[in-house]
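Entry 14. Structure prediction run on the chain below.
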Amino acid sequence: MEKGYLAIVLHAHLPFVRHPEHEDSLEENWLYEAITETYIPLLLVLDGLVEDGVDFRLTLSISPTLAWMLVDPFLQSRYLNRLERLIELGKKEVKRTKSPPEFNALAQMYHKRLLQVRDAFLNRYDRNLVEAFKRFQELGKVEIIASAATHGYLPLLSVDTSAVRAQIRVGVEHYQQVFGRRPKGFWLPECGYYRGVDELLREHGIRYTTLETHGITRAESRPRYGVYAPIYCPSGVAAFGRDPESSEQVWSSTEGYPGDYDYREFYRDIAYDLNLDYIKPYIHRDGIRVDTGFKYFRITGKTDHKEVYVPEWAERKAELHAGNFMFNKEKQIEYLTSVMNRKPIIVAPYDAELFGHWWFEGPIWLNNLIRKIAREQKTIRLTTLSEYLEEYPVNQVSTPSTSSWGYKGFHKTWLNGSNHWIYRHLHQGALFMERLARSHPQAEGLTLRALKQAAREVLLAQASDWAFMLNRGAMAEYATRRTRTHLLRLNRLMNEIKAAGVDEERLSMIESQDNIFSEIDYRSFG
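Output returned:
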């Protein structure tokens, strides 16, 4: 009989990026890389576990923007085109690297891997990765939870309650349309909690959410069991806290597993090392060098000199690190059991894209961990958060602290000198949309289409990704352009609706570009 539980929570999210107006969109590569390096490898791991009869539980949030992109035929087609070009590059790399042999072996590995990804995408999953993940939920192995419509950072949108309510409502409704059931859990974007957001979650039938560590440890009243048991907010929504030890071990590139010198070096790609004439067909058509995924070096150390990547060494390290993580969790559970009168739960949430994209060996580590927990010990059992609530329905009532999992644990990442300018416009946009919804309670025809598109533009402008990019300085120009574009479209649509003079041709063009949430109810802002 197990002494406690481990709940692994993977948050899969990308901002909505879809540019049919451009022949080659630089930013669409974010999706294509994630499909090849994270989502399909994770699915193959889960398939292998099921096929081998390994019992496991996993919690997964798939943001509505990511889910929409994954099922979009246009983006699926573009992804395949990108994949075919990389397979072609793989063939060329096998020829180019005939000597020395260690580079040739890596080129062959990447080429084979890309062929496997293509086969899985087309034949195993029939292009629909959302349906593939849904299957594991129906098998009872994975619990998929909902998230906000466009990953808006809710604490900073809360100036207007209708903005937060719309993010939650549209996200929940999208989940129901895709997965055919009501969600039990909800991922707060960036783990961003503020007092009162749980009331809005309860309005939409949500049972639980996950918070950063200090969202629980600084709660009022102080939780007796810290982050190792959930608390109930006054609304009745349960809040689970992130275990800091599990976070540091897996997430940190300096102190955690991903920084091990035998693992693959993320920042050394042939796109930047090889002659432009050779690599040009496989990067952006304007000659902008973008990652190809062909990376031949390992981390080696804190040095610019990098040694050749050895997959066998990395795989052994992934197995070793999985065993180390399991050992640490066993000891942690044993200690917690000695000071608690119930089975503790260790909640370990991570960005899904860490596994495979940022940390190439991440899926191998996860596969080893799940198998080891199932077969090599009896102290821990994997669980989902809703299963834990079913076993322990009585929990302490407490009010969580405002928090996020961003820098220093609060709002600084999304509100600082680099991005503060966006919020007055976002608040004004939400107010405009609220007024439009109230003044047109039963819109029809062209006005209805315009109102639905206006709601999409507000939601897309609110995505936390733009503020995040502005803060980092990476892709800041794109983030600025996206924010301004959506707000300008909203402003023009609002004026056209008020004047009863909607430009149908222009509206059709916008609808074809930002086609997310086709069934959106604009009155969500009311």
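The domain at 4-71+128-264+312-408 is CATH 3.20.110.10 (7-stranded beta/alpha barrel).
Filed with the rest of this week's runs.
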